[in-house]
Amino acid sequence: MKITDLQLQQYGIYHDASWQPSQTSLNIVMGENESGKTTMLRFIRDMLFGYGRGKWQGRKGNMGFVRSDGQFYRVFRNEKEQWFENANHVKFTEDLPAAWWHGLNRSIYEKIFAVGLEDLQGASFLANDTVRSRFFMLQGGDKLANAKAELEEAMGKLFTSSAQGKRKINQLASDLEEAEKELDGLSRQEKDFSDLQHRQEEMKKEIADLQLKLDKDNEENSRLEKRLGAWKYYQQAVSVKHQLDLSSQVTMFPSNGKEQWNQLMNRMKVIHDQKESLQEKLDAYKPVKKEEIIPWMGVENELEKLYVDLGQWRQTMADAEEMEKEKSDWRIDFVNLGYSLPLWDHALSLDKPCVNVDWEEGRRLSKSLGVRNNELHFWEQREPEVEKLSDDMELPEKEESESDWQNIESMASELEQVLHEEADVQSEMDSISATEDKKLTPWLWLSMAFVLMAAGSIAAFYMAKAGIMSMYGAGGAAVLAVLFFYLHSHVIHKKGNTLEKLALRKEELETQREKVSEKFPGQAPKTVDELKAFHNLMQEKRSGFYKDQAKRQAVSWKKETIRKQMQQHKNWEEEGEILTEKRNKAEKAWNDWLKRNSLPKTGAENLSALQEQWQKIYSAEGKGKILDFRLEQIDAKLDAFAARAQSIIKATGLPYAVSPDGIADIYEENHRRSLEWEALQEKNKQHEAYEREMDKLDEGWASCQREMDTLLNLVQAKNAEEFAEKVNAHEHHDQIAKEWERVKQDLRMYAGGEEEFEALWHALETGQYDQWMETHNTLSRRIEEESAKLGELQRSQGAIDNEIFRLAGDDSMTSALQKKEKIEAELKSALEEWLTLMYTEELLTRAQTIYESGRQPQIMKMANEFLKDMTMGKYSLHMADNGKDIFIEDSTHAVKNEKIWSSGTGDQVFLAIRLAMALSFGEQIEPLPIVLDDIFVRFDEKRQRETLRFLMELGKKQQIFLFTCHERTMHIAEEVGYEKGTGEFIHLSAGQIEQVGS
Length: 998
Fold this sequence. Notes:
By secondary structure, the chain is α/β, with parallel strands linked by helices. It contains 28 helices and 15 strands.
């Protein structure tokens, strides 16, 4: 293949640069440091073999080339996208090396085809199997090297000599060692199994006893809870039953009973006032009830439970604080995430969640926009060239037409003919004038003879010597005599007449010439002698006219061509407008899609990066949602704790905060008040003494009470309060009866049945609430302790059961033995395979050596010819029998090995070998461009000239690029190129490509 053009759209310092290298001459490229020479070298390799890993960002370009079969192709490499097309724009996605070059890779190309100064440092590359397989073993020999490489790779996968190797044999050996260790460990499991079984039986018995005790305690506690729960209903029922009994005891009540009662009450008021004076003393030392000291007696258990959970509450609060901090950090990271994403490059909004993006539509729009951009790109590449008329093609106003020139040609021809005729007439006149005048002619003698004959015939007729025929004869003779005389007269006057005619003709010709001369544009000839100069003048004018005509015709054709080109350019522009409109529509659809999905504005080529960066935002947003969910769970726990604390604080009525510290303070306050109550019980006893003094006053009250007995007896009341109760009960008998039925029904529903109700009622009648409550609390604490202990025992039992189950069903010993046998079998098989591969590799190595021996001489023979050409026949090249060592022989047959070569000679030798290998590859597979980079650094000027002469000749059939940063090398190349009549010379400067001459 040969490169036809390079298009560096965006590559390093090159932007929209192009170059059409020569295909039939050496390409010499000179560029100083930082001029883009190295970049151009890298571009050629990247076009052939693709960008290196991670080195595609911001690189776009394409390269046209023609293969040895004449087919044109173009390879495109736009960042990650790469393909090549044929002349019909049919796309192919295969790699060029795999498709055409027998798998030649970039590394081998750079060893042989891309030669730099550092590459001309010895023949070590000849010992490289990869290089040897490609070049010394062409036409199938590389299959031996590939097979050998595959064998080495397979051997490397099986075994390595490293102690830390992870190959199959190494791993199997390690596994075998581990299996043996495992077998040693399994032998100690039998004793552990026996101990676990004994411990299992003991724990089962302990759990059964504890479970039985726990069931009994739960049953007793449940019974107590039912009694305690029914106590308030029982007290209400006792009150209603008491009122109902009072109502039934009243059989007859006087109509003025109440008035009598009121009177008694007024009398008793006096006694009451006396009692109040004593009551002041009692009030000064008022007894305190426990509910007054500890008003929250109903919530002690809840307080105790919450106090136990304070650690969990505080941990939950710490978790909430940490989660809030994490959420705050997430907000900052999420907002700043946009700055780390090149396509966003702005802070993200927490109020705008990610929308679901239809990436399939995005890929479709991106592909559509890419197609439109490619169409525009190829449209731009197809821009028709519109030539311009150069200054030398501008013509003056046309003076002579074709008919005018034909008329001039006709007049010139006429002048030439007239001059020639005039010269002939003059020559004839001179010739006639030079002849003598004739007086006597044969015609005169004949005329006289016939006159005499006519006279004799007439005389004979008149003398009757002849008849009438004589008269006819006389007439004929007279006619002939006149005729001959005329002829005689004509002959003797012929000279004068001819001269006279010729003189007239000459005058006519002169008149004709003068007329033509007057019309002839230019100096007309007057004599034949002037015709030669006239011919030259006419020839010059004729040549000028036809040159002018040809030039005018060329200009006309050129104008027609330009007109067609302009028409093509106009059609091209119209096509461009259509393509631009399509591209704009595609771009608008793309931008609308970005806007609709709240995506940043970017090019369609960045779709993959856009999706990847959007995914990062989506993932970050999902993390925030997870944090929100976890915060909600933690808040729910905190709310539950707060609700429990709120109910306790509300029951206490104390101004404590709803917090763990507040509950801890309440707990401490509860403990303090309990101690305070124990101290106040002694003071209450002193208060009872004051009450006994009040009893003395009650005796006076009793005297009044006896007066009221009559009324009390009427209602069978024992005291005033009972009197009031019975009176009220008597008045509200029906309502109390209904209330009694309702209370009994509530207790029945609570008990669950009639028998249960009777048993519960009996227990409530005979039982003590405080004893029940104390017993209930004791049982609750004991149940809680027993449940915790039972749970711990059950967990331990489960762990033991699992371990026993595991050990009982553990076939590890059998598995370990089977595993060891399997590993030993696999290790034996792998060792056999490795030994087989090693033996096969040795056979292939020997076969490769034999195969190479028949190929090396061909390449070395070519390299020898190249070396002779480069050194003007001074050196010839030879290779040792081992196929690796090389030496040279000079013209005196002195042999020199590599150690005593000069640096320049060595560079020429290794250059010749690489060029021979490259051309051998081209003969067998396909020619590839050769790139030489600053190979003349160690060459003197003479050696540079000799090598350049050789490369100039080789460049006529093989495309070669010679890069240099030395201006002197460029001057020598230009001189050699001028000498050889070949070469293309390019100058690079800051990313600009300029052809400087050839």
